[in-house]
């Protein structure tokens, strides 16, 4: 099995040496002000009891038949999501429709929480690891947010609401699951009320390229990648 999926050990991301290297890189790439702002946000989350830390999933309670096809939990940061949304907006050359944001493989709820804070009217996350879903619920509650929901489900069993406007994948699973998710989405497409865009962060398979219109792909200085699509 490839190291990107369920058996990947991501626990090094919580170690002090890793955090220090990220801090130094942020200082170099983004400057002191932006780095201090990020640290301030982390301290704020800590005081609220919010936890978005990286976590392996192979020892968690996973729902459904695709237990061996998912990736470890790595949470999206506010800055990264903001960058992605801004880049998509520039690509389509109009303001984003911020009606409904859905994150397939939503972990501890970081992306759905940030998306709500960045102006989406409603956000929904679908997560198959029970412990991560429960942590997402706690995080949402700790921040007192409304219209942010975490659903405990395998992504292949989730039916998108018709008012969907943005779909987010942050390298959640391999092509086996992605193929099923995309085929469900294509079957529902005619019911959708809005133009729907997709952001695929750190893409690890090419399934979306078969189904959707690729608008652009970007590699960021951090090493993160993103693909932008119109459904
Ligand atoms: C890389 S993390 C992304 C977390 C979140 N999207 C974020 O950006 O903060 C991938 C997540 O997908 C979840 N996942 C993997 N396979 C899944 C499946 N079949 N259905 C639902 N969630 C899945 C994992 O448990 C993990 O939490």
From TrEMBL:
InterPro entries: SAM-dependent_MTases_sf. This is DOT1 domain-containing protein.
């Amino acid at each position: 099995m490839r190291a990107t999926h369920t058996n990947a050990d991501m626990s090094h991301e919580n170690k002090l040496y890793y955090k220090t290297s990220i801090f130094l890189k942020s200082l170099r790439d983004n400057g002191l002000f932006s780095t201090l702002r990020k640290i301030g946000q982390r301290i704020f989350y800590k005081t609220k009891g919010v936890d978005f830390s990286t976590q392996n999933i192979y020892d968690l309670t996973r729902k459904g038949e695709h237990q061996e096809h998912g990736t470890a939990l790595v949470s999206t940061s506010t800055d990264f999501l903001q960058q992605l949304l801004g880049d998509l907006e520039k690509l389509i050359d109009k303001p984003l429709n911020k009606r409904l944001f859905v994150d397939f493989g939503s972990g501890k709820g970081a992306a759905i929480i940030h998306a709500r804070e960045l102006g989406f009217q409603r956000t929904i996350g679908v997560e198959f690891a029970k412990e991560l879903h429960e942590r997402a619920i706690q995080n949402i509650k700790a921040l007192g947010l409304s219209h942010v929901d975490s659903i405990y489900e395998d992504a292949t069993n989730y039916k998108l609401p018709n008012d969907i406007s943005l779909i987010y994948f942050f390298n959640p699973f391999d092509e086996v699951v992605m193929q099923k998710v995309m085929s469900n989405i294509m079957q529902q497409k005619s019911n959708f009320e809005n133009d729907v865009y997709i952001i695929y962060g750190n893409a690890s398979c090419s399934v979306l390229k078969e189904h959707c219109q690729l608008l652009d792909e970007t590699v960021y200085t951090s090493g993160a990648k993103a693909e932008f699509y119109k459904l």
